[in-house]
Amino acid sequence: MHEHTPIADGKAANRSGRLADWDGDKAAAFLKQAANLLCEHMASRNDLTQPVVRLASPAELAVAFTEAGVPLELRVGEDAASMPRLLAALGATLEHSVRTAHPLFLNQLYARPEPAGIAGDWLTVVANTNVHTYEAAPVFTLVERAVLARLAVLAGPSWAAAHDGLFVPGGSIANMYGMHLARAVVDPDSASRGAAGGPCLVAFTSAQAHYSYLKSARVCGLGSDNLVAVPCDASGAMLPAELEVAVEAALARGGVPFFVGATAGSTVLGAFDPLVELAKVCRRHNMWLHCDGAWGGACLLSAMHRGLMDGVELVDSLALNPHKMMGLPLQCSVFLARREGLLQSTNSSNADYLFQPDKLHADMDLGDKTIQCGRRADAYKLWLTWKALGDAGLEQRMDRNIALAAHVEARVVASGGAFQMVRPRSFANVCFWWLPRALRPFDAAAASPEQLTALGKVAPALKMRMQQSGDAMIGFQPLDGLPNFFRLVFASASALRFEDLDALMSRMDALGLELFP
Questions:
Q1: Dihedral Cα 394, 494, 491, 472, nearest 10 deg
Q2: For the sheet containing 227-230, what is the strand order?
Q3: Does the 388-515 domain belong in CATH 3.20.20.210?
Q4: Of 386, 380, 333, 429, which is closest to residue 109 (Cα–Cα)?
Q5: Which residues pair with 486 in a beta bridge?
Q6: Ranges in the chain annotated CATH 3.40.640.10
Q7: For residues 341 and 329, is the Cβ–Cβ distance under 8 A?
Q8: DSSP designation for 426
Q9: What strands lie across the sheet with 482-489, from one edge to the other?
Q10: Fewer beta carbons within 10 Å, N or C terminal of the chain?
């Protein structure tokens, strides 16, 4: 073999066979400068004088990166970039990305990450460990088991006594695991036979459940026709009586009801399904009850608010997203099941090049009970954050998020008609309209089609102007025939003050009057 092997940029490997350009001192110097850049960005995250976003079009972004010396496109024959250009790429990316750690980023069900979580994430990237076997990931394997055990304790004594679980890539996948295990229980032959020739399985979710249930039904082979949307009450919670009606209808059609996907903290209204009553229906018809607590499950941290999830000890599986209310960096999602060994028996393929039963500590391997092979050490950042904040710190952050939401609701109610609640606040979700003077007072039930159309244009126009100026990011949407309204959510708002919210609502009112005089 030749000592000097040609490589892509025309340079040669050194005598040790390594490419020295990115080895040793150069790598350390680059990473130190990159870390300084990232830390400076972190240091400014509470600065309300900074915009939440410097909104730019795709064409404007292309120009900005080209001017920084790092065009977005990857050309054929791309030359290696210098360290200054790479640092410029990092700077341009931060400059033009949404500042999700900004106190006024209130757009999604996630927000600013905790510093310990960021450090934990950095460490797992540097370690670059795949959490599939104990021999490859000894510390991360034990950490994942420890965090799952602590979360099981939060869910209740029966969970602590017997549970199984995994960190998974997102709440949608956690919901799919619930449906996947339920199918394995009711139709174990499906693993070998496939869906064809098996029972017509029927699943049920609320009409306001997360869209991931629909995707799960498709991936798991049920088909969207066999996912039934159950009506909700005015708060957005599933009606147990309507679930019973839907189950009986499915039985009459020859279907096999097997799965109910409940919601703890719905995406729009923040509604909590009544788990105790749903569990009664599920037990009566021998159905698996899964709870999507991706958003609202964090209330288990709070003595004041955990009652929202009364009945969690009765569910068969649970999804939690610490990267939402708990302030962990994306992604950090958990699936828990109450039947030990079911993940392993459902998903195991016994790949003998990875999961040899006669190797050291083989009983600690986690990888064969997943549907993945490559899997990040996402548990570590939650473990480190929990160590940094303790139970009390996590609980205080949880309670503060809901207190901020209650404050906004009170401001809406006291606004004299400028703002109006769409529904009473639930959890940390505040859904409201800003009303032009011509529509005050507003009664949605009595409004004409023209009034509904006019109001539906208000939130998009207000949001567009706020984005253009870099002001707060707040989501909007229609729901159940109601015109577009703002949905303000508090996911990780430890730096947000009550007076910041007061000032925000005053700015929204002034901007609304300017746009709709």
A1: 180
A2: 164-168, 333-337, 317-320, 288-293, 256-263, 201-206, 227-230
A3: no
A4: 429
A5: 432, 476
A6: 129-383
A7: no
A8: B
A9: 105-106, 473-479, 482-489, 429-434, 419-421
A10: N
- What class, spelled out in words, does domain 129-383 have in CATH? alpha beta
Percent of the chain at pLDDT above 90? 82
Q: Provide the pLDDT confidence category of residue 259 given band limits of 50, 70 and 90.
A: very high
| Token duo for residue 340 | 């030990």
pTM of the model: 0.91
Determine the pLDDT at residue 487: 96
Q: What is the 3-state secondary structure (H, E, C) of 431-482?
A: EEEECCHHHCCCCCCCCCHHHHHHHHCHHHHHHHHHHHHCCCEEEEEEECCE
Task: Pull the structure tokens for residue 306.
Answer: 């955990």
* pLDDT at residue 353, rounded to an integer: 63
Query: Residues 45-80: pLDDT tens digits?
Result: 999 999 999 999 999 999 999 999 999 999 999 988
How far apart CA 222 and CA 35 sit, in angstroms, is: 47
For residue range 88-123, list pLDDT tens digits in order: 999 999 999 999 999 999 988 999 999 999 999 999
Task: Using the predicted structure, report yes or no on whether residue 7 has a pLDDT greater than 60.
Answer: no
Q: Which residue has the tokens 């410097």?
A: 54
At 421, phi and psi to the nearest 5?
A: -70, 140
**Residues belonging to the chain:** 517
